[in-house]
Write a structure and sequence with these properties.
Layout lengths: L14 H4 L11 H25 L9 E5 L18 E6 L2 H10 L3 E5 L13 E5 L9 H14 E11 L2 H12 L3 H13 L1 E4 L15 E4 L1 H7 L5 E10 L2 E7 L23 H9 L5 H8 L5 H13 L5 H13 L3 H13 L2 H24 L1
Parallel strand pairs: 1-2, 1-4, 2-3, 4-5
Antiparallel strand pairs: 5-9, 6-7, 8-9
Helix pairs in contact: 9-10, 10-11, 11-12
């Protein structure tokens, strides 16, 4: 059953609370921004409804919904009809917006939470979790921590609707920063190679937001690979939530194996993927001396080696990822070859497995040659 939107909804939040969850605006636009905050939420909720329809669900199917990072009620102010049959919850790290919601949205249940998990919610409590523009502002370690927590508090079969900044948003940001400049190209290279870009030097410096809160972009392939450690990917909708991409994920049953990213040699058998990653890393002892031989003379070899060492020693990469990152570093000075390798990195198919085997054989052959000469 579609959501019903009443004209008699709770009041629009005070402008100082709205300012905390929207881009900076001129004081002369106060009334326009309040109106936009009210009306844009309806369009965004319509986008969430369309995304649920893709997986054969609608809002009325769920017993308990959580708006994670709810702010001053962007969505919650419009969910009174849903609250007739569904528990409606909101959580945010901003205690002031939670106080305002408790006073003005009587049909919801609201909690102020810590910037770091865990929350006080019980295990497997929610069958629908949604948000708007939370993972678009968190650094990678904090994203991973919250993914683990969302997995804990979502029930098996539960659905998550999460938004990200991806290709369209990056292209606009690159234009605003200065298209073609060295800074933009460095950022683009990081996003393409790492799959995630966290920009600390942004407009949130000196704002009311916490120090960790800045601007994050994701490559779709990163979401497909990393977030499936915790959830199954159900749908990906570019610009599915207004100006942000929408990721639809499903919490799999505890005894069901996870989705296996194409091209990776590990099974995502645990809830957070850590057991699979640790097992893979333990079975693959990296000879850093060999890696130094391979990357010698390449751009910033020590930076590349340091990154590989940190990630492998942290048991955060499997065998194929080590090879992938090594290949990116080796080929990054050749734009034509790099474009060819990107295709392999994107689908992580058999091409890279072949290259990995060839690279290993070449290293062994080189070692035998040195031994024979010695």
């Amino acid at each position: 059953m579609p959501l019903r939107f009443s004209e008699q909804r709770p009041p629009i939040p005070p402008i100082d609370l709205i300012q905390r969850v929207v881009p900076p605006f001129d004081p002369s636009r106060r009334e326009m921004e309040k109106k936009a905050f009210d009306e844009e939420a309806i369009r965004q909720l319509a986008g969430l409804e369309r995304a649920l329809a893709i997986v054969g669900r609608d809002f009325s199917d769920f017993r308990r919904v959580l708006d994670f990072g709810c702010g001053p009620g962007r969505y919650l102010r419009h969910l009174e009809s849903l609250a007739e049959t569904t528990e409606v919850h909101g959580a945010d790290i901003d205690a002031q917006v939670i106080d305002w919601l408790r006073e003005n949205v009587p049909y919801g249940r609201f909690e102020a939470i810590s910037p770091d998990p865990p929350t006080t919610y019980p295990d497997k409590h929610f069958d629908l979790i949604l948000n708007h523009s939370v993972f678009t502002h968190l650094p990678e370690p904090l994203q991973d921590a919250w993914m683990h927590e969302l997995h804990r508090i979502s029930e098996p079969g539960g659905v998550l609707l999460l938004t990200i900044h991806s290709t369209p948003q990056w292209n606009r940001a690159a234009h605003d920063i200065g298209q073609g400049g060295d800074q933009v190209e460095r950022m683009r290279a990081t996003l393409e190679q790492e799959g995630i870009l966290f920009i600390r030097d942004d407009s949130f410096i000196g704002s009311t937001h916490p120090d960790f809160y800045h601007t994050t972009f994701h490559a779709p392939w990163y979401v497909f690979e990393r977030w499936t450690r915790w959830f199954d990917l159900a749908a990906y909708v570019p610009l599915g939530s207004d100006t942000q991409d929408l990721v639809v994920m499903r919490r799999r049953p505890d005894d069901e194996p996870g989705q296996r990213p194409i091209g990776h040699g590990t099974e995502a058998g645990s809830a957070d993927g850590s057991a699979a990653a640790a097992a893979a890393a333990a079975s693959f002892e990296v000879d850093f001396g060999r890696l130094e031989q391979v990357v010698a003379g390449r751009p910033q070899p020590q930076t590349l080696l340091g990154r590989i060492k940190r990630r492998v020693l942290a048991r955060d990469l499997d065998r194929q990822e080590v090879v992938n990152r090594l290949l990116v570093g080796v080929l990054q000075e050749n734009a034509r070859e790099l474009r060819m390798v990107r295709g392999g990195l994107y689908d992580l198919g058999q091409r890279l497995s072949v290259v990995a085997n060839e690279l290993r054989d070449e290293l062994r052959e080189s070692e035998r040659d040195r031994a024979s000469r010695g």
